[in-house]
Amino acid sequence: MRKMQQELDSVVGNVRLPSMNDRTKLVYTDATQTEVFRYRGSAPLTVPHKALRDTKLQGFRIQAGTVVLNNLYSVHMDPGYWGDPETFRPERFINHDGSFRKDERVIPFGKGRRSCLGESLARMTTFLLFSSLMQHFTFSLDPAIPVTNTDGKMGFTLSPPEFKVFAQARL
Ligand code: HEM
């Protein structure tokens, strides 16, 4: 949060809100949002799809008509690829030269022809909301209600456990 706030202060300042034009310069903020999408994306599974024909995938036979859901969570949490998937580490999306590192293994909106129709809109709105909140407030947890479990609650979507935060105005 502090690193994002430093970045927002220097790139955006405090007299206007962040805009999409700032995004390429807000590398740490972008990397943090990407890490949120990877670490606890709100859609761990895709919507159900149906195999149109008999298919063989990674040694598994999938019969035509089988309902298939893709496990995005397993892609985001693959220790063989990420090394330390359970560590929240935005730096994994930043190159040595300080630029943003896009990673094809981050697929919070699914992949392919039936991926999320609202992806561009969702990426824009989450970025603008997230960066504006970080610009305006410093968040802290209520020490009386410690968060002991960050796994989230799994319904069809993944939602946060009960939590209480204080938002202190910075501007
Ligand atoms: C952060 C917000 C969002 C996330 C993480 C998200 C994620 C997803 C995922 C994982 C899928 C399933 C893709 C697949 O089956 O392969 C999906 C499908 C879909 N999403 Fe989103 N979504 C978000 C916001 C939105 C918004 C804002 C809209 C509409 C304005 C939207 C509209 C749709 C539609 C219509 C589908 C079905 C696409 C199809 O089956 O062809 N989503 N979304």
SSE layout and pairing:
Layout: H1 2-11, H2 27-40, E1 49-50, E2 55-57, E3 60-62, E4 67-68, H3 72-76, H4 79-82, H5 119-136, E5 137-141, E6 153-154, E7 158-159, E8 165-169
Antiparallel strand pairs: 1-4, 2-3, 5-8, 6-7
Helix pairs in contact: 1-2
Bound molecules: protoporphyrin IX containing FE.
Low-pLDDT residue spans: none
- Overall geometric form: globular
Largest sheet: 2 strands, antiparallel
Number of domains: 1
Question: What structural category arises from helix and sheet content?
Answer: alpha+beta
Stated plainly, the CATH topology is called Cytochrome p450
Number of strands: 8
Corresponding CATH superfamily: Cytochrome P450
**What level of helicity do the residues show?**
25-40%
Strand residues, percent: 5-15%
Number of helices: 5
Q: What is the second-level CATH architecture?
A: Orthogonal Bundle
Secondary-structure element pattern, one letter each: HHEEEEHHHEEEE
CATH class: Mainly Alpha
Main sheet: strand order:
1-4
Mean of all residue-level pLDDT scores: 96
Structure characterization notes:
By secondary structure, this protein is an alpha+beta fold. It has a single domain, classed as Cytochrome P450 (Cytochrome p450), CATH 1.10.630.10. The chain has five helices and eight strands. It has helices spanning 2-11, 27-40, 72-76, 79-82, 119-136; strands at residues 49-50, 55-57, 60-62, 67-68, 137-141, 153-154, 158-159, 165-169. A two-stranded antiparallel sheet has the order 1-4. The protein has a two-stranded antiparallel sheet with strand order 2-3. Helix 1 runs antiparallel to helix 2. The radius of gyration is 19 Å and the shape is globular. Protoporphyrin IX containing FE binds next to helix 5.
